[in-house]
Amino acid sequence: MEQNSTNMIERYLDDKTIQLESKKYRKLKIFISIILFLTFSFLQRKVNGVPTISGIFAQLQVLVSIYLAIKASKASYITAVLLNLFGISQVMIAIFLLGNVSAVTGVIVYSFNIISITIIWALSNRNVKQFKRVLDQREDIIALYEELSASEEELRDQNRQLMDYNEKLVKQEEELTFLAHYDTLSGLPNRKMIKDTLEKIRKNALENESSFAVVLIDLDDFKKINDTMGHHIGDTLLQAVAERLIPFVKEEDILGRMGGDEFALVIQSQYKEDIFQYLEQLRNNLNQDFNIDGNRVRTCASFGVALFPQDSTDDDELMKYADTAMYKVKATGKNNICFFKKEMNDEVLERTEFEKRLLTAMEEDELFLVFQPQYRLDPLELRGFEVLVRWKSPDMGMVSPMKFIPLAEEMGLIVKMGEWILRTACKKFKALKDKYSLDSMISVNISAVQIQDEFFVDIVKSALEESGLEGKYLELEITESVLIESIDKVIGVFEELKKLGVHIALDDFGTGYSSLSYLQRLPIDTLKIDKSFLNHQNTSDENKDIIGGIIFLMHRMGIYVIMEGVEEEFQLNYLKHRQCDCIQGFLLGKPLDEPTVEELLKK
């Protein structure tokens, strides 16, 4: 389009140039004009007696004069003036020689013609000069037009860019609005939107004197899934949980993700019984296994409920009370629904204080180790010790491991605590071994979270090097629960540990998930049968057969067998009869502190 416009201007200017520069026909045109003028003048005199025809010839002379003036050349203008002067001379002859006084009007007409053509010529000459200047500037005009055309295209480009930028701004504004109000992982309303919506619902409930419930839903043992199976599996599980809950949430209610593994649900219902049935349906759906990237993941959730206006009319308090009720479920077995009660506040404060004390327990050297002896049965002799951790609080006294170990796992302290136990056990046992020339082992419990830690093998290697203890004298005990996680990764860790000479023991066998197929794959050295098989040994022939069968199979697989929880003499005799390799229990030795262990070794 720009090129066509430029060509059009060039053609127009070229045409005008040709018109101005072709002078060869000018003289001919002037000559013809003179002949015409003189002819019309002669004819006018001939018909002077007929005014109408005489006037026509006079007008034709005027037209010829104007034509010559319009040509805008000096020669044509002078010619036109001379012709009109000639006309005046003819009129003057008629007046003075012929005595025709009426011809005086001709003088006026010719004089007027001279004035008119002078004005026309002056204007036309000025226009021609201006156009010549334009012609002289033709390159500049074309360049200017091209520049203007380019500027127009640039403006179009800038306009398009502005439109694109505006679209991006609108899109970014929509994205920012989404990010401000929705959780990017699950697509659910986020904490801010939940709180904003809760405030609106509360105000509406106050005006209408209605009620509603605030529910906090926290996945049980999610941290363990994250630590053992990886954050990718954890994130995908959160998405799957949201997808499973959404179809069962009523249209008038709002489900959102508060962060981590915690979800919130605001239920606009009047009756406590309806709320319970509603949540029970959600809980049952979450209890079904999830298939995450080919892994079967089992989870459940704890539900805490606070009611408006029964429990509070304040948004923050309702959230706090729902959180309190949810932690009550956590403390009493998980996977349940609990409605807030006022007395729960004291329990929450107690748990919070307990957590604070556990955090400082390691720093203040309140944790210590005890050693429970293990004895071979044929002959009866010391095999080694299992290391157990104890906590003596200056305020609470002796705290049960059953209370603080699970809490340490929940708080994420178990890896740090486990490393301290391992390093301390290796140092102390190395000192006892050197002092008493022991040919025995030390067994240390390892959690599933520690096994999944990428630096675990390095930590074990460092503990052995730091203490000077050979790997063959260290036995690491893992529970069956580790087998539900990534079995291939666990096997890889075990093989690395075996390269250090470390023994691997499967603890609490019979309480969980292991099978013969797992045992055949795992590079374990020792299997510890859970004490639950001995609880009814004196009355149950079935348990006798199970213990005997396990011992027989393990021996066929080349695995050493330890029976835990031996407390009675008849149990010892039965295990000897079944050719059990080793026992551990109160019958032959309770967990001992370090001075008592030294007394035992002296004997």
From TrEMBL:
The keyword Membrane applies. Residues 351-603 form the EAL domain. Residues 210-342 form the GGDEF domain. The chain crosses the membrane at residues 28-44, 50-70, 77-97, 103-123. Residues 141-175 form a coiled coil. The keyword Coiled coil applies. Keywords: Coiled coil, Membrane, Transmembrane, Transmembrane helix. This is Diguanylate cyclase/phosphodiesterase.
